[in-house]
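Progress note, sequence design subtask.
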């Protein structure tokens, strides 16, 4: 456990395996209620940490929502978690100012053995694994592969804002990697910031989507109260599926940047509302 207290700024990825003690319903868009439950866990550990995550404009806590096999539910827009199934939750933290978030989650979910309480039931943490990497290490990994191809599996609805709350509904190379670039440059040391123009992405990267895996989504990401006291649901539109990104006459710097950004996406998530279950990805680099 000594690695948990090191002072080096690192992106963190935490994988929880959780299990319900009984069958109970959860919303189809389970990332949002799980986000609220995690804030509750953090609040028990350190109220100031919870508030910082909630207020962060970056959405520095990336939460995958629940990943696993669900049952049906009689409740509209709900599904059921089942006690004979285990569910995976991936959390990512990339902002160096939020190292306290990682420490608080470790304390409450592992050392203190806390459960995650949802509206209709609780999830017990069965196992906890963590990975970490610096921006420099991700760039080094990217530089070690020649003529790579990058496959990104968008496991949850990925909502990339193009302009004025309009989201793209396709894993276009420019939208995906410009989103990751913004997250990278907001968290990397100044010396490791990347330059990757839209034109470089358009001319040097080719996307090859898996049409059979492609889906579109409208997911609940927040609830807000109107002036008259009524609660309004906020939805984001996005896509999921699998897409391979290959290169055409790309410079070494463009290839390295794209690969590093893809690897970084496993920690940061892709697009907006990543704290509320959106933009969870799995990355495979092949040569």
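Output:
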């Amino acid at each position: 456990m000594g690695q948990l207290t090191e002072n080096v700024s690192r992106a963190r990825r935490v994988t929880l395996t959780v299990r319900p003690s009984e069958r109970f319903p959860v919303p189809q868009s389970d990332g949002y209620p799980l986000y609220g439950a995690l804030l509750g866990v953090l609040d028990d550990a350190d109220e100031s940490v919870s508030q910082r995550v909630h207020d962060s404009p970056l959405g520095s806590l990336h939460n995958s929502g629940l990943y696993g096999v669900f049952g049906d539910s009689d409740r509209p827009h709900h599904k059921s978690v089942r006690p004979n199934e285990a569910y995976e939750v991936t959390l990512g933290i990339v902002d160096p100012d939020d190292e306290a978030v990682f420490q608080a989650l470790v304390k409450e979910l592992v050392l203190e053995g806390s459960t995650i309480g949802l509206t209709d039931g609780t999830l017990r943490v069965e196992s906890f694994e963590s990975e970490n990497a610096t921006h420099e290490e991700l760039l080094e990994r990217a530089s070690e592969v020649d003529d790579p191809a990058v496959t990104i599996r968008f496991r949850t609805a990925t909502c990339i804002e193009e302009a004025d709350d309009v989201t793209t509904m396709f894993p276009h190379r420019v939208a995906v990697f410009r989103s990751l670039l913004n997250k990278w440059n907001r968290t990397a040391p100044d010396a490791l910031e990347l330059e990757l123009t839209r034109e470089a992405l358009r001319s040097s990267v080719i996307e090859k989507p898996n049409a059979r895996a492609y889906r579109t989504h409208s997911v609940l990401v927040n609830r807000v109260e109107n002036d008259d006291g009524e609660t309004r649901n906020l939805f984001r539109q996005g896509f999921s599926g699998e897409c391979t990104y290959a290169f055409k006459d790309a410079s070494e710097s463009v290839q390295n940047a794209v690969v590093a950004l893809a690897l970084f996406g496993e920690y940061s998530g892709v697009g907006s509302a990543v704290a509320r279950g959106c933009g969870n990805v799995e990355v495979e680099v092949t040569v």
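Confidence is low (pLDDT under 50) at residues 1-7. Work on this subtask will continue into the next period as scheduled.
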